[in-house]
């Protein structure tokens, strides 16, 4: 080999058996720090550890606006001046909500930790000194030499040094990477194969590999090995990727190039992203909107409260001493926060807790669905995420892998056309013979051995491939890189042309019992651009021949001329394509020694190039594959999974667009597209070369039946689409990139179906990201291999196929299914039901909240704009927990509009979720208005019913009025839910009945006189106490607190009438205003039953009893001047006053509908205060 220097771009250097060298190399990191250049082999996919779990999880949870809102309300409750409930009563449910979600995240992360631990603890043999020792995967470092045994997994990306197979071949299975079970072969360099033959030679190996930096390109690798003064070219055929499994090879040795997160498979695994549904994001915005409306409402009520207080103080100036420490502005300020807390229940915490429960139970319904249970492999459906069920009903785009997801990856050789004759189906890939009348004719033709074209056709099938063979007893077992090749080789074997063995430069076959060995001069491998592969061999007679197979589009244009049977062969190709079979054209030609020598010399020079190697080789291959002679065509069927075409048809009827993203070549993807009915004959197929010119001028001229096939290159901005858009005049690379993305997405989404071929795992995720970014659509990705992991993580919903190969895909997915066909039931049944249930749940939860609790606002207009609650505290606490929660919960768990069978019969019903018809801003506005109208009706009808239409137009009993409004609102909510529930079960009846019974039960318990006697501080609203304060002002705690702090009297009443005198100040003299007679004639100043004037002597004193909490029998006269009764001057609520005497401070407390008047009575010196009757 000639000595070559590595180009400057190749900066990744690996020295064999030199850990110290790699550990001292460092690279720059964030904040001017540095870290090791070469990563360790231990991986960490978990999100949390013991130190970061609590802060990081709380940080993620407080991305929800509702949680921030609840914390804000709790902080307000910590201020006693404005608090209506103890702060811990709100902290407890919030803690429960955060704990439930944290435990769910913790369980998911524990699973990731266990998976990481299992992977990092896998055993492997690492060369240490001059011998191999068993260590763990996490101990592997860059530059180590690792020994692998049969059926073991490759721990890191390694350069294959040698193996126990002839010519150091190595067979690997990549099922954990791309889902394919077919074996792929790798081969070591000839120099390492010959020199590294013992552990001592491996320990002495000091080669240096210079290659590209770690990247995500799975199928490419470029580098050189420098050893003993020579440089050897390296490519992807020498590399064993992390996650591959060693097959049919007893032992192999590799040099670690990339370890841990630098390996190619880990570079393709995207980060774990927290997924939020559309309803989640909408709820965050609604919380902000509701909160702003709440603040605006509280502000308006607070302003009204300030004006009312100012008017009251001006009208009743004799009470100025009572307000000397407060002002109307200050009262308005405290009222604002009081109303904010009082109305904060409009966004109830119980809704989010119920949310989690509904999501959890609906996930169980998916797990328990026997229609999605795959009995053959005993695999049920699994909802690995419990927070995305409603989004299953809103999917607009499905991105699917092909191999192992749509197909079984099993090929059957169905038909062929040779020398103008078509032969029917026979020989599947497992060698099972299929009886057919044409089969006999083909076999007879082969046995007669009269047709040279047929001989060359079968010889090409036995020679032109990359299949490996293994002898197991008397049987030959083929291991192919693709199932197509396996089917072709098996077909040739069944017809007498048996592939026996191969070495690095020979291949041996048996032709009708005659063993022949061919020298392999060159293999012109397949790639996505060439769409063909060739093998250049020298037969035992010394003749050099080229055998080529490939797509008809590239083979037919390279023929020497039109042969006699070419027209018939082309018609056969069309016939096979109509049957959705995968076709290949077979051709050959003979070369002279001079032609081969010249081409071989240039081929060797191109093989050792570091830059431009692939282009130079493609040019040489193109030069060789000219002037071919057509031999025939083959037709292979790629077996689909059961029910795939029917599922795709149903999904398309549900307005769901299916895109296929595959790493296979375009012809293979097209054939599968036709087989699964994704593509139909009436569609116009647009390839990349046809798409690009049209985008520049008319990007939106496609009909709904168009489809687009695109290769991965457009995503790397190398296609013509980039060139056309670059001509628009934009010079900013970022702007140009955005134009390319937008044009590609607009074009692709206007088509009925899209198939992207030869895309890498990272490009799959990029396509999903582009659609999410530019279309704001809900996406679902489904796959079965590690190459689909990034796509699954990027999509809004990730589904893993839990077959034999889908281990890594399932671990990173949100839902796991055994077959692709179960996707129709997951989306059209469970997804649509989940969306319907959550939307109805939200609508009715908001409705019942508005209907029941908006009455607090209307009550403020009749209580002096104080923040006094209309309802008792127990009703407020139990309303969303017991009284109305159960019927709404039954709707969220069990509601159905149609049965599962009809959901599948009419997939068009699915579109309501895509269009957000069941819950959006308009629906929320209608729900708000509906709730407001219900609350207005409940409040004002009750107010009208309780008014005294004979005497004063006031309400006589605050407690009865409150209970009536509460009962009316509750019944309105329950009747609304009953009328709109479409699917009734025994549980639904039980839920509604339980709500009514619980309301009656708790109302009786919380308002009974016995409960009041046992705990008067807890049960302050007893139904049996006749005299209840009408309204307690929000200012009363502050006023009481200030009054207790000050020992001087707030009001001093003086009299010259001695105690015991029968002289009483007349009512006329007390009023000092005209119009008092009118009050008497209207009956508004008449004493109610059980109260009378008790003023005697110099002071108005309450008649005492032995009980310090006796009812007031003192003055309760209602006058315009004092407002000492419970009659509002504006004629609103009236109730009985409750007076209380504080003997210690001589306080007489009289409660009014707006505030509490505190009279501090100052006795004359030496005068003793006594109650009458003592």
Automatic annotation (TrEMBL):
Pfam families in the cross-refs: Cation_ATPase, PhoLip_ATPase_C, PhoLip_ATPase_N
GO molecular function per UniProt: ATP binding; ATP hydrolysis activity; ATPase-coupled intramembrane lipid transporter activity; magnesium ion binding
Catalytic activity, as annotated: ATP + H2O + phospholipidSide 1 = ADP + phosphate + phospholipidSide 2
Cellular localization per UniProt: Cytoplasmic vesicle, Secretory vesicle, Acrosome membrane; Endoplasmic reticulum membrane; Membrane
Gene3D superfamilies in the record: Calcium-transporting ATPase, cytoplasmic domain N, Calcium-transporting ATPase, cytoplasmic transduction domain A, HAD superfamily/HAD-like
PROSITE patterns in UniProt: ATPASE_E1_E2
Chain segments annotated as transmembrane: 286-309, 332-355, 873-894, 923-946, 958-979, 986-1005
Names of required cofactors: Mg(2+)
Sequence positions that bind ATP: 401-403, 485, 526, 549, 582, 662-664, 758, 764, 787-788
InterPro entries referenced in this protein's UniProt entry, alphabetically: ATPase_P-typ_cyto_dom_N (IPR023299), ATPase_P-typ_P_site (IPR018303), ATPase_P-typ_TM_dom_sf (IPR023298), ATPase_P-typ_transduc_dom_A_sf (IPR008250), HAD-like_sf (IPR036412), HAD_sf (IPR023214), P-type_ATPase_IV (IPR006539), P-type_ATPase_N (IPR032631)
Enzyme class: translocase
Active-site annotation: 401 (4-aspartylphosphate intermediate)
Positions contributing to Mg(2+) binding: 401, 403, 784, 788
Similarity annotation: Belongs to the cation transport ATPase (P-type) (TC 3.A.3) family. Type IV subfamily.
Protein name per the record: Phospholipid-transporting ATPase
Natural source organism: Meleagris gallopavo
Lineage start: Eukaryota, Metazoa, Chordata, Craniata, Vertebrata
């Amino acid at each position: 080999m000639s000595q070559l220097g590595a180009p400057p771009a190749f900066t990744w250097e690996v020295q064999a058996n030199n850990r110290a060298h790699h550990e001292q190399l460092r690279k720059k990191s964030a904040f001017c720090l540095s870290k090791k250049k070469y990563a360790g082999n231990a991986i960490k996919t978990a999100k949390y550890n013991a130190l970061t779990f609590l802060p990081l999880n709380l940080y993620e949870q407080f991305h929800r606006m509702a949680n921030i809102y609840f914390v804000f309300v709790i902080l307000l409750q910590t201020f006693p001046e404005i608090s209506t409930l103890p702060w811990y009563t709100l902290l407890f449910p919030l803690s429960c909500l955060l704990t439930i979600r944290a435990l769910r995240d913790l369980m998911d992360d524990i699973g990731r930790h266990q998976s990481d631990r299992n992977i990092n603890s896998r055993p492997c043999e690492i060369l240490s000194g001059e011998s191999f020792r068993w260590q763990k995967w996490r101990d592997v470092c860059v530059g180590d030499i690792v020994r692998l045994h049969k059926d073991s997994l490759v721990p890191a990306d390694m350069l294959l040094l040698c193996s126990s197979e002839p010519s150091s071949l190595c067979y690997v299975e990549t099922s954990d990477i791309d889902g394919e079970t077919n074996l792929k072969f790798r081969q070591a360099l000839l120099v390492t194969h010959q020199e590294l033959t013992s552990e001592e030679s491996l320990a002495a190996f000091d080669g240096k590999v210079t290659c590209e930096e770690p990247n995500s390109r799975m199928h490419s690798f470029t580098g050189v090995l420098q050893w003993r003064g020579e440089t050897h070219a390296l490519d992807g055929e020498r590399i064993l990727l992390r996650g591959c499994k060693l097959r049919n090879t007893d032992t192999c040795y590799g040099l670690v190039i990339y370890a841990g997160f630098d390996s190619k498979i880990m570079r393709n695994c995207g980060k774990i992203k927290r997924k939020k549904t559309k309803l989640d994001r909408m709820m965050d915005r609604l919380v902000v909107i509701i909160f702003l409306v709440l603040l605006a409402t509280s502000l308006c009520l607070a302003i009204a409260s300030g004006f009312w207080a100012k008017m009251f103080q001006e009208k009743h100036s004799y009470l100025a001493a009572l307000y000397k420490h407060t002002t109307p502005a200050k009262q308005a300020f405290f009222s604002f926060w009081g109303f904010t807390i009082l109305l904060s229940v409009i966004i109830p915490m119980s809704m989010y807790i119920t949310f989690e429960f509904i999501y959890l139970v609906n996930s169980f319904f998916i797990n328990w669905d026997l229609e999605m249970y795959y009995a053959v492999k005993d695999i049920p459906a699994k909802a690995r995420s419990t927070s995305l069920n409603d989004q299953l009903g809103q999917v607009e785009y499905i991105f699917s892998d092909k191999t192992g997801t749509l197909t079984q990856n099993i090929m059957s050789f169905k038909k062929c056309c040779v020398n103008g004759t078509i032969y029917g189906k026979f020989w599947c890939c497992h060698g099972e013979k299929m009886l057919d009348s044409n089969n006999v004719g083909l076999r007879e033709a082969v046995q007669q051995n009269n047709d040279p074209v047929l001989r060359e056709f079968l010889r090409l099938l036995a020679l032109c491939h990359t299949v490996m063979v293994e002898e197991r007893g008397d049987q030959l077992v083929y291991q192919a890189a693709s199932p197509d090749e396996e089917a072709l080789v098996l077909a040739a074997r069944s017809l007498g042309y048996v592939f026996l063995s191969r070495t690095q430069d020979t291949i041996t076959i048996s032709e009708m019992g005659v063993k022949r060995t061919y020298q392999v001069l060159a293999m012109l491998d397949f790639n996505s651009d060439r769409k063909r592969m060739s093998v250049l061999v020298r037969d035992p007679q010394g003749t050099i021949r080229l055998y080529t197979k490939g797509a008809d589009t590239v083979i037919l244009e390279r023929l020497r001329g039109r042969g006699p049977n070419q027209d018939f062969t082309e018609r056969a190709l069309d016939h096979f394509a109509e049957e959705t079979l995968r076709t290949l054209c077979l051709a050959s030609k003979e070369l002279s020694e001079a032609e081969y020598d010249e081409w071989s010399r240039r081929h060797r020079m191109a093989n050792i190039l570091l830059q431009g190697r692939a282009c130079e080789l493609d040019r040489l291959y193109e030069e060789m594959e000219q002037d071919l002679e057509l031999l025939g065509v083959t037709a292979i069927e790629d077996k689909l999974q059961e029910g795939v075409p029917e599922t795709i048809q149903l999904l398309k009827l549900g307005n769901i667009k299916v895109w296929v993203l595959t790493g296979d070549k375009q012809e293979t993807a097209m054939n599968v597209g036709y087989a699964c009915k994704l593509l139909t004959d009436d569609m116009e197929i647009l390839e990349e070369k046809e798409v690009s010119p049209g985008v520049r001028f008319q990007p939106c001229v496609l009909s709904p039946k168009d489809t687009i096939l695109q290769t991965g290159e457009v995503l790397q901005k190398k296609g013509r689409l980039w060139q056309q858009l670059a001509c628009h005049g934009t010079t900013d690379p970022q702007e140009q990139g955005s134009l390319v993305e937008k044009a590609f997405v607009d074009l692709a989404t206007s088509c009925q179906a899209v198939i992207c071929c030869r895309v890498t795992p990272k490009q799959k995720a990029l396509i999903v990201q582009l659609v999410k970014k530019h279309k704001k659509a809900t996406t679902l990705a489904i796959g079965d291999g590690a190459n689909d992991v990034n796509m699954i993580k990027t999509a809004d919903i990730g589904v893993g196929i839990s077959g034999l190969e889908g281990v890594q895909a399932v671990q990173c997915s949100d839902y796991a299914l055994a077959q692709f066909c179960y996707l129709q039931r997951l989306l059209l049944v469970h997804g649509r039901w989940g969306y319907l249930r959550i939307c109805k749940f939200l609508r009715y939860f908001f409705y019942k909240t508005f209907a029941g609790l908006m009455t607090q606002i209307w009550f403020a207009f009749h209580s002096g704009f104080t923040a006094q609650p209309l309802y008792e505290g127990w009703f407020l606490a139990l309303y969303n927990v017991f009284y109305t929660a159960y019927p709404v919960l039954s709707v969220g768990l069990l509601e159905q509009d149609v049965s599962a069978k009809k959901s599948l019969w009419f997939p068009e019903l699915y579109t309501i979720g895509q269009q957000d018809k069941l819950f959006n801003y308009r629906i929320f506005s209608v729900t708000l208005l509906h709730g407001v109208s219900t609350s207005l009706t409940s409040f004002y009808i009750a107010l009208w019913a309780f008014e005294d239409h004979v005497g004063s137009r006031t309400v006589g009993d605050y407690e009865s009025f409150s209970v009536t409004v509460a009962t009316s609102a509750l019944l309105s909510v329950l009747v609304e839910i009953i009328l709109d529930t479409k699917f009734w079960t025994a549980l639904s009846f039980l839920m509604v009945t339980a709500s009514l019974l619980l309301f009656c039960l708790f109302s009786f318990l919380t308002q009974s006189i016995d409960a009041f006697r046992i705990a008067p501080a807890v049960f302050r609203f007893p139904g049996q106490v006749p005299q209840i304060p009408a309204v307690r002002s929000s200012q009363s705690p502050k006023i009481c607190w200030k009054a207790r702090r000050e020992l001087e009297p707030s009001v001093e009443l003086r009299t010259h009438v001695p105690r015991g005198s029968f002289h009483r100040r007349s009512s006329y003299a007390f009023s000092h205003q005209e119009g008092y007679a009118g009050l008497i004639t209207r009956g508004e100043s008449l004493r109610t039953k059980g109260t009378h004037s008790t003023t005697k002597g110099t002071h108005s004193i309450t008649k005492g009893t032995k009980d310090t909490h006796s009812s007031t029998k003192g003055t309760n006269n209602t006058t315009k001047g004092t407002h000492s009764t419970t009659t509002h001057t504006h004629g609103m609520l009236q109730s009985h006053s409750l007076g209380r005497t504080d003997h210690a401070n001589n306080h007489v407390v009289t409660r009014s509908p707006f505030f509490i008047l505190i009279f501090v009575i100052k006795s004359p010196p030496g005068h003793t205060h006594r109650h009458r009757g003592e």
